[in-house]
Design brief:
Elements: E1 7-8, H1 17-49, H2 54-80, E2 90-91, H3 103-107, E3 122-129, E4 132-137, E5 140-146, E6 149-150, H4 159-170, E7 174-178, E8 191-196, H5 203-209, E9 214-215, H6 229-238, E10 304-305, E11 315-317, E12 326-328, E13 332-334, E14 349-350
Helix pairs in contact: 1-2, 5-6
């Protein structure tokens, strides 16, 4: 026997006996007032013929009204009774989306689904250092500077290790550039972004945790906060990884050179006695030399350290494209406001 879903009865349906019941109610509603009026007419007629007929006439009128009312009640009962033909089992209907118990289940598939972060589908094609990469997407190509971290610069301790660590993490992989609202590019035109891998790993945070970079360029050094600053700072404070660089040995001292042997000394014949020389004229009084002008003292700007940045109307990096009038050879560490714009990438080190 085939299993069927549970059944439940349906209410009265329009048509059939129900239609006749409704018509009966309407006719009874019209006939009741008519019967009452007829009874009043009969009563008045009975009084005109004699008082003895008044009671029977009134009784007949009330009886007629009662019959009409009874017919109306029967018809109303028939109209509201369920139709036997309609009391048949029908399959239980499926719960729809509006059902209060089914609606949460229908919506649960979208709860907690993360929104796609803009900037996906980029491929890392080159790693320049521990915080800078080149990426492509189709015909697009960008140089990306990771937000909120600073890795060692070329020629400094840890540069090779930090670059290799970032390359092992992202080189050749598809990444998402997570933008932030503060600024999109630095002075060198590099895109400022987070670098997220498909498995959710934040490359910048991983560099900090591995000791290959520090958290920087945030609200603590005047650059303003960024969305992931709290986690970056916490990871930096908790990181115990340290890159140790070998000390450069001092240059070996040159071996001492032996002095050349002196030639043999031969006795020279005594010179003839010189003729007495005339007395020389007295030497003139020496003219005192004019004192040399003092060397100019170069003033260094207090907002920079590790190199003397002169105080001038404008100072540019030596060997760069600036037009001076003053120049400084880097690297220069920015310790205050970068009034001359020497720190192009905002990492705290200028003219690098």
């Amino acid at each position: 026997m085939e299993d069927r879903p549970p059944m439940r009865p349906r209410g009265p349906r329009p048509g059939g006996a129900n239609t006749y019941a409704v018509v009966g109610v309407l006719l009874s509603t019209i006939a009741a007032p008519l019967a009452f009026v007829l009874s009043l007419v009969g009563l008045a007629r009975a009084r005109s013929l004699g008082g003895g007929l008044a009671a029977p006439a009134l009784g007949a009128g009330l009886s007629a009204a009662g019959m009409v009312a009874g017919g109306a009640a029967v018809a109303l009962a028939v109209a509201t009774a369920p139709d036997e033909a309609s009391v048949r089992a029908t399959p239980e209907r499926a719960v729809d989306v509006a059902d209060p118990e089914a609606a949460p289940a229908a919506a649960s598939s979208t709860v907690g689904r993360p929104a796609s972060e803009p900037g996906g589908g980029w491929t890392v094609v080159a790693v320049l250092d521990g915080d800078t990469v080149d990426v492509t997407r189709g015909a697009e190509q960008e140089r990306v500077r990771l937000i909120g971290i600073d890795a060692p610069e070329p020629g400094t301790c840890g540069f090779e290790e930090a670059t290799a660590a970032l390359a092992a993490l992202v080189d050749g992989r598809t990444v998402t550039l997570g933008r932030e609202a503060r600024v999109e590019r630095d002075r060198d035109g590099r895109v400022l972004a987070y670098l997220d891998l498909p498995d959710g790993v934040d490359a910048g945070l991983r560099q900090i945790e591995a000791g290959m970079a520090v958290s920087r360029d945030d609200s603590r050094d005047g650059h303003g906060p960024h969305p992931r600053e709290a986690s970056y700072v916490s990871a930096d404070e908790a990181s115990t990884a340290v890159v140790t660089c070998p000390e450069t040995p001092p240059p070996a001292a040159a071996p001492p050179q032996s002095a050349p042997a002196a030639p043999p000394v031969t006795a020279a014949p005594p010179p003839p006695a010189p003729a007495p020389a005339p007395a020389p004229p007295p030497d003139p009084e020496p003219t005192p030399a004019a004192p040399a002008p003092p060397a100019p003292v170069e003033e260094c700007h207090p907002n920079y350290a590790d190199a003397c940045v002169p105080i001038a109307s404008d100072v540019d990096c030596e060997g760069g494209s600036g037009d001076g009038p003053a120049y400084v050879r880097g690297p220069v560490r920015v310790v205050g406001e970068d009034v001359y714009g020497l720190d192009a990438d905002g990492d705290g080190i200028g003219c690098q």
